[in-house]
Every structure is written in C-alpha cells, then in structure tokens.
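If your schedule permits, I should be very grateful for your opinion on a structural question. I have a record of one protein: its chain in single-letter code and its fold written as discrete structure tokens. Would you kindly read the sequence against the tokens and tell me how you understand this chain to fold? Thank you for your consideration; the sequence and its tokens are set out here.


***
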Amino acid sequence: MHPSTALARVLVDELVRCGLTDAVLAPGSRSAPLAMALYEGAQAVSPHGLRLHVRIDERSAGYLALGLAKGSGRPAAVLCTSGTAAANLHPAVVEADHGRVPLLVLTADRPPELRDTGANQTIDQIKMYGDAVRWFCEVGTPHARPGMVAYWRSLACRAWAVASGPDTGPVHLNLSFPEPLVPDGDPDHDKAWPEDLHGRASGRPWTRVGPEPATTGESAVPAALSPDVRRGVLVAGDGAYDPAPCVAAARAAGWPVLAEPSSNARQGREAISAYHFLLSTPDFVAAHRPDVVVTVGKPGLSRPLLGFLRDAPDQVVVDPGPRWADPTRSATDIRPAVAGAAFPPSEPGWMESWLCADEAACRAVDAVLDRDDVPSEPRLARDLAAAVPDGALLLVGSSMPIRDLDQTMRPRRGLRILANRGASGVDGLVSTAVGAALTHDGPAYALLGDLALLHDHNGLVLGPEELRPDLAIVVVNNDGGGIFSLLPQAAHPGPFERVFGTPHGVDLAALAAAPHVPYARLTRMSELPKLIDGKGLRLIEVRTDREENAALHARLRAAVAAALEKAGLTRTG
C-alpha cells in the first residue's frame, strides 16, 4: 500500500470511530487519497455510518460542513486540495471560530520539498487560518515505518476532542500527500506494510477523551447572585447551548427574558417579543432599570439591547469557556455553568410591567403590519416563524432577516432557529441551510436576503448522487443591500445606490431554473402557508422595496412609542 493511501484510510477509519458521520469534499488531485478513503468509508456498512457530500465549490463545501455541524452538534469534516482551494475554506473557518461550531478542516498539501519552489498549486498552508482554529497540526509526510499508525490514530482522536471540547471550534489538519495518490489495486498490498493498520478491537477509538462534553450553557444558571436583587433580566443571545435551565430560573424568579431568535429561548409567558422597540423608548428604559442582567450566549442583534447592557449596574455573563461574550465591555462577573442555582425573586409588579408594555407594543406592531395583504419584510419574518409546523428548523440570514425576526417574532415552542451569527457574514448561507437541513429530522426552512442567495447560489447545485434536503428557501428580493437603507449611509444619496444599495437586477426564477430548483413567487401574505408547504429543495421569492422598508421600520418605532405613552406604560408599578 502506498503511504498516502495508508494515511488516508487510517485517518478516515479513526475519525469514524470517534463519531464522524458527515464529510464534505470538493474535488481535486492532491486530495485524492483522502477523497477515495472517504468514498470507501461511505460505501462500507457500519453501525456508525458515514455520509459523503460532494460540492464543486470549496467555499460552499466549507459552509455545508458548517451547517452539518451546527445542525447535528457534532464535528463535520471538510476536505479540499492544495492551493487556493484551501484559502476558500477560510470564511467558513472564521464563522466556525466565532460561532463555536465543531469543524474538522482537512487540507491536502504538496510534500515539503515542493514548497517554495514554484511547484504547481503549492502555497504556504502552514497555520493559514491563524488563530481562527483551536488547533493546527502539520501532519507530515507519511512513511512506511513502524509507529505511524499510532501517530495517525492518536492525532485523529485529538483533533476530534479539541473540535468538540469545552472551547468548541474548528481544527485544521494539513496533510502532505506524496505521489502516487491513488491505490495500486493490489488487495494484498497492505500485508507488506511494516505494522498492523487496524485500530482497536470492537470499533473503539484509539484514545478516549473523558465523557462527552456539555454544550455551552447546559445547566447554565449562575450561583450566588446577591439576594438584594429585586429587578433582574435574563438576556439570551446566539449560541449552541441549552437555554432551558436559565429560562426556568427566570420564570421562577419573575424575570423578563429578552431572547434573540437564534438563542431558542423565546418561549413562554416571560419572553418579551418587542424588547427592541421597548428599549428604543427612553422613558421606558428609565423606568425599567434592572439591578442585574444575566447574559447567556452572544447578544448583538439590537443596538438598544447593547445599550441596555452597557448601562446595567451589574451584568453577569454565564459562559464556561475562555471566550466569553461581552461586546459592551461592561460585564461585572463571569460565571461558569453551575447546576442547581436560582435567580433571586423579583419585586412585585416587575414582570407584569414588562408584560403589559410588551402586549401594547405587539398590538401596535401588528396594527401596522396587518393593514393590508402586501408583503413586507418584517411581516414576512413574523408570519413565517408562526406558520412553519412544529418540529421545523429555520435558518435565518445574518443581515435584515434575523433582525426582522428579532423585532416581530412571537414566543413559540417546537421551532429550532439557527443563524450564522459568529461573524455575521452573508456568505455561505445557502450551503449552511442545506447542511443543517440534512441533519434535521423534519421540515427545514431558510429566510435569506437576495444578496445572500447570490453570494452562495452555488449551494443550490447538487449532483445526481447527492442527498436532497427538505428545505424551502424564502428569499427577500429588494434588489440590493436593504440593511444599508436603515443605516447612516442612506443619508448620502449621491453614492448610496452605487456603493451601498448595489442593485443587481438578477432574475431569481432563472437562477433557480439553472440547477432545476422549483420556484414560486409570493405576492400576497395570505399565500404564505400554501407556498411554503411542500417537499424537497425549493425557492420562494418575495419582492420588496428598500425605501418603503425603511419607512415601515420608522412607522413601527413611532407606533410603539405612541402606544406606550397612551397606555402610561413608561413607569413601573
């Protein structure tokens, strides 16, 4: 057996023993040994099972692996060849870093003697992702000598353990494959290898690393909060953690919960849907200053919420890892996950004041959104989150879609929401949604903007042998960058359209037709339940106007402010 083939087969076998179920590859020559080993592993009948996904675009492949890892909670692997192929994985690696997503990045490379010689498709891949990975390993050139199998298998176990450990994130293995790159076809050739290539008996991993790590935030209730606290608030941001313990503690203590959609904590009576609008009202904020705010996950969608955190007298951030989220630099305490603790009970009327204000704000928002049946971006987000069935998954784009959902979504159970809010890019979202859908046991949906779709339309390209997700992609098409119409850039009409609005004029129906993806267009909001019903990968376009959307958001803010003033809800008690 050639050394490159031996390394590839041993590495794949050991990763499967560790628990690898999904691997993505983009085709290339130098990565051939590992590509063929993954193909063989996916063909093998085993109790673990390995699914192989093939994409022609490395960037889409990286985000597909990211979606598979986000959806399953387990590391997924992505393989590419050498050169710029490896560079195209960098965006997904950055998102996995900031989003704490377990990812195994396997880059094929030329042997060291070919580097810096002008050899074809050879660049410097050593630590090419910098500090964005939890661990980098230059695996080294394989040789037919004793000790290599133990090295390769223990290395695979370490990579798996680091990627899925307490500080979950990406791991990069750079693999130098010398020629020949394909098996020689001799079934007895492995007998000439100087040591046994097989792993441990009974399918065990070579090295077992402790118990399965708890996900960030599991049983994450901080102990020893001051008993003098009378006004507490729980803030739940984006992240891969179980929000239930903190939400239960908040419910028992009578604390309002300000939950971003991708926290999956916007459930139950204590969840405040309209907190963005409430915290945009200075009189309400002045009358509702908390004693302490407990934060889990990574908040960052709402500027008023960040201002609320900045001004809190005490902010307790619950995070067991070394990379705690404190974007306002205002945390007074950092606590690890502590089981069995509770929040101090709130003063009488504290929760009721928040709930009354939220009810008034939601009525005002609904009155503005429901004036007619014409689609709008905030209403689409609200209605889509309400219309999808229980057991559904919804991946939401990182720009306006997630913000519209944050501002309009009502509390509900039975829906899992994901978003790439680690680095909040609009790239790779189609592939992320496909990957998450392929791990989800039930229907999946995505709410994306037109620029996000165009940025990753290659994610719609699936070969005839690839798994097909049950995924409806709902695309808001406002012919450009809609979020900029809500930012200070909009006050400069001269350069605005050219350098921020970036109109594209793309026919999304034709775009969907190229990879044979079924297409529909929503023209009335009452059509939404019917159009999202279906099976397989499909695209639904919703056209809106950027200027009208900006005006609508202004009307929403004004309506909530007027409703709170009319109801006298800017004071507690």
Remarks:
- Residues 79 and 106 are 5 Å apart (CA to CA).
- The two ends are 78 Å apart (CA to CA).
- Residues 3-184 form a domain with the Rossmann fold fold (CATH 3.40.50.970).
- Confidence is low (pLDDT under 50) at residues 212-219.
